[in-house]
Amino acid sequence: MFRIPISDDDAQAGYTLAALIVILTIIAVIVSFTVPPQWSLIMRREREKQTIFLMKQFARGIMAWEQKHQGAPPNLEMLQKARNPRFLRGDGKWAMPLTGRAEDWIMVPPQAVLPAGVVPPPGGQPGVGIGRNPANPATSTAPPTVTPQTGSKFDPAASPKDYVGPFVAVRPNATGPSLIALNGAEDYSQWIYTVQDLKNEIMARQTAMSMPK
Q1: Residue 105 and residue 77: Cα distance in Å, rounded?
Q2: pTM above 0.85, yes or no
Q3: Which residues contact 190 (CB under 8 A, 6 or more apart)?
Q4: Can you tell me whether residue 168 is helix, strand or coil?
């Protein structure tokens, strides 16, 4: 039988090719385990950004409604019929990016919102039962503390999912830790951006622009 002689250089090239195939296989396995989770985190962060953007747009719509009607909109349907903000034009609905469903926006009533920087004392709400009892200091209640928070806080218990009535913000029907903090909140259940937050943001921008450079 005729055999083609194989030189040492050819054998070395064969070993090198085999080693390269093994290395590429290892890299492919590593990529298959690392890239999908990283891509999932990127997509999740983008959905969070879209959700925050829409929450701010809803706040703009509420502010426009207040300026025209001298009060908060009575329900989400009325805001949708007014086609304000602009993204509500068309079918009058917009899906909540975190879930992809339009029905997963929850209206936040005014009474559920605490002013920015105010934290209720333990066991009570701000302005309720506040004072010192000289006869029994143990029963005294502390006044609300003021902290350097930049956005509104709210009580989720006062903002049920089935709430219908005047509202000052919308929040996502979602729970769990978020990648992006909104007004210091790092859980979807605590996310809120009210019309007052929008007004404060606009005022802060105007103040910054009016300051001498």
Answers
A1: 12
A2: no
A3: 153, 154, 156
A4: coil
Give Cα separations from 133 to 3, 123, 126, 137 (angstroms).
106, 16, 17, 5
Cα 99 versus chain centre, distance: 12
Residue 77, pLDDT > 60, answer yes
* 18 token code pair: 């085999």
Residue 199, C-beta contacts closer than 8 angstroms, at least 6 positions apart: 63
Q: State the pLDDT at residue 14.
A: 58
pLDDT in tens, 88-139: 555 556 789 999 888 899 999 999 987 654 444 444 444 333 333 444 444 4
* pLDDT band at 59; cut points 50, 70, 90: very high
Query: Tokens 């009533």, residue?
Result: 109
Residues 197, 116 contacting (CB under 8 angstroms): yes
* DSSP 3-state of 125: coil
Secondary structure (3-state) at 187? strand
Q: Phi/psi of residue 110, each to 5°?
A: -60, -35
- Determine which helix (DSSP H) or strand (DSSP E) holds 11, and give its type and residue range: helix 8-69
